[in-house]
Write a structure and sequence with these properties.
Layout: H1 2-22, E1 26-32, H2 39-54, E2 59-64, H3 75-80, E3 86-88, H4 102-105, H5 114-123, H6 126-136, E4 139-145, E5 152-154, E6 168-171, H7 175-182, E7 186-189, H8 195-200, E8 206-208, H9 212-218, E9 226-228, E10 238-243, H10 244-248, H11 252-286, E11 290-292, H12 296-313, H13 317-333
């Protein structure tokens, strides 16, 4: 009897120990470049709330909006070196580190919808192609959220390729600058947080900032009165990438919560912007902002210029692998000819 009691007590102690071990807490410092009042900023906050709630409080997230700790382009390195834990900006900011990041950040002139781009990541070999790139720099790709095609903000009409001639506009770093230089524009690379002031002071004539609804949230059309909608030139994949050592040390169920919540955020983002961009377009037209829809032949001119630039950026093994993965999937979708 004594032996039985001893065994029962031992089992109970083991159970308590197991429960204690499973209740490990995770605290993450995550920075995004989005302002909290933008649509994307609100969606990011919902992701943080979802993760904390689904983990029953085991995961705590300290969120930093509007690149308040370091500049947007520095977020990735800040996470990799431990100043932050996770980067919630986008791979396109890291093209100076490795041109392969262009092809996880914004392929440009490739996919038509966020659903196509997300399907490449999850079902078209994208995650497998991208993981080694992130791991090389001490980071783990958790997932993407894609809000769809971006629209310009401009002080003059942007209705066709010829309108790019001598147009000074804010551009993110990377391949976009090369494409638009070929089309006659004058791209100026600057941080996301500097766009409003640069437009207000006339340093730039326009900006490639974000989707139409986010641009409204940033107040860009309070300054300039021209845009294009629907967008066509850029569909960036915002990412969540975390310090690999930090992520690897997290319990498996915390990792799973982070990744599955990103899939939910991706769908929620695509669906939200379908609605928000349409609402923003109606609002802007009512306010006297001119929205231009590009003709198919003008869109093809841009696609041709963009796709001709891809090989110029496929100059590392990782970039070549990613371009091949994209092209293979784009051919399946019928978006690139054989």
């Amino acid at each position: 009897m004594k032996t039985l009691k001893t065994a029962v007590c031992a089992a109970a102690l083991l159970a308590v120990g197991a429960l204690g071990a499973s209740a490990q807490n995770t605290t993450l410092r995550i920075q995004t470049h989005y302002a909290p009042e933008t649509v994307s900023g609100q969606l990011a906050q919902q992701y943080f709330d979802d993760v904390m709630e689904m983990s029953n409080g085991e995961i705590t997230i300290e969120a930093f909006f509007s690149s308040s700790v370091v500049k947007s382009v520095e977020t990735f390195d800040a996470a990799a070196t431990g100043i932050l834990d996770c980067d919630m900006t986008g791979g396109g900011y890291q093209t100076g580190k490795n041109s392969a990041f262009q092809f996880v950040g914004d392929i440009m002139g490739g996919y038509d919808t966020p659903y196509q781009q997300l399907s490449w990541l999850y079902f078209g070999g994208g995650r497998e192609a991208a993981a080694p790139l992130y791991n090389k720099y001490g980071m783990e790709l958790i997932g993407w959220w894609v809000y769809g095609q971006e629209s310009f903000a401009s002080s003059k009409p942007i209705e066709k390729v010829a309108d790019f001639k001598d147009w000074k506009f804010r551009s993110p770093p990377g391949m976009e600058t090369k494409i638009f230089e070929k089309l006659g524009a004058k791209p100026i690379v600057m941080d996301f947080t500097e766009i409003f002031t640069a437009l207000e002071t006339g340093i730039i004539d326009g900006a490639d900032a974000s989707g139409l609804a986010n641009n409204v949230g940033l107040g860009l059309y309070d300054i300039v009165k021209y845009a294009n909608f629907p967008g066509f030139h850029s569909m960036p994949s915002d990412h969540l990438a975390c310090n690999k050592a930090v992520f690897d040390a997290m319990p498996a169920h915390h990792q799973k919560i982070m990744k599955v919540a990103m899939e939910a955020l991706a769908l929620r983002t695509a669906l939200t912007f379908e609605k928000k961009n349409a609402e923003a377009a109606a609002q802007l037209r009512a306010q006297g902002v001119t929205l231009s829809q590009w003709a198919p032949e003008e869109l093809q001119k841009f696609r041709n210029a963009a796709q001709a630039t891809w090989p110029e950026f496929a100059d590392t093994p990782e970039a070549k692998d990613l371009v091949e993965a994209h092209l293979s999937y784009l051919k399946q979708l019928g978006l690139v000819s054989e």
